[in-house]
TrEMBL record:
Pfam families: Acetyltransf_1
MF terms in GO: acyltransferase activity, transferring groups other than amino-acyl groups
Lineage: Bacteria, Bacillati, Actinomycetota, Actinomycetes, Micromonosporales
Protein known as: Acetyltransferase (GNAT) family protein
Domain of life: Bacteria
UniProt keywords, alphabetically: Transferase
Ranges where the record places region Disordered: 1-20
PROSITE patterns (UniProt xref): GNAT (PS51186)
InterPro entries the record matches: Acyl_CoA_acyltransferase (IPR016181), GNAT_dom (IPR000182), Trichothecene_AcTrans (IPR052523)
Membrane-spanning parts: none
Length: 208
């Protein structure tokens, strides 16, 4: 999913558990009107109430199992996971917690999880961009691109690939500009398409 002051070399930090609410609320604001929003929860007021708690689950998971990067003023965040042959562990009681949070909308959220799980290429090893979120007031100003470049520079140094699912054509164009190439389209049950994309490193790491 992707929701985008221009800093060529932004100050980037790793959030701590103390930042969980800040990051969760940023994700909720960034994706409140996102490409999947109407399909997941059609009612805006209900979505605005549920989203912060839903994304808090993902942030909890990311702080435990992933790599979270946020700019200094907490207006943009990227959540990455290192994938090496097998799926990531779930949070304890994730399915029940998801159901408790999302109520009658749970089947859509579960279908999204299952579709991405079933279609994710677990080999070869790569870094998975699960979320790139920018505060709505700063979208389309290069803030998200700065976070991407920061991580991609590291990936190119180590020769590592990256993978993501773009949630719409605008996002797909953004990622194309950053070197991602389309994979077969993933269609959600009675829902919008997702656009899996893969990026190979632009340089070969030097032998030490």
């Amino acid at each position: 999913m992707t929701a985008m002051h221009t800093h060529p070399h932004p100050a980037i930090r790793t959030p701590t558990p103390a930042d969980q609410q800040t990051v969760s609320e940023l994700l909720a604001e960034a994706f409140l009107h996102g490409d999947l929003a109407d399909w997941l929860i059609p009612h805006l007021d209900t979505r605005a109430r549920i989203y912060p708690h839903y994304f808090a689950l993902h942030v909890e998971h990311a702080l435990t199992h992933g790599q979270v990067e946020m700019n200094e003023d907490a207006t943009a965040v990227a959540i990455w996971y290192a994938i090496d042959g097998e799926p990531l562990p779930e949070l304890p009681d994730y399915s029940q917690r998801l159901a408790d949070l999302t109520g009658r909308f749970q089947p859509r959220f579960a279908a999204l999880d299952q579709a991405m799980h079933d279609h994710h290429p677990y080999d070869p090893p790569h870094l998975y961009l699960a979320f790139l979120a920018v505060h709505p007031d700063l979208q389309r100003r290069g803030v998200g691109s700065a976070l991407l470049r920061h991580r991609h520079d590291q990936l190119d140094e180590t020769g590592a690939a990256a993978y993501l699912e773009a949630t719409g054509l605008r996002n797909r164009r953004l990622y194309t500009r950053h070197g991602y190439r389309p994979q077969p389209v993933l269609r959600l049950p009675a829902g919008p398409p997702l656009y899996p994309m893969r990026r190979v490193p632009t340089t070969t790491p030097q032998a030490s």
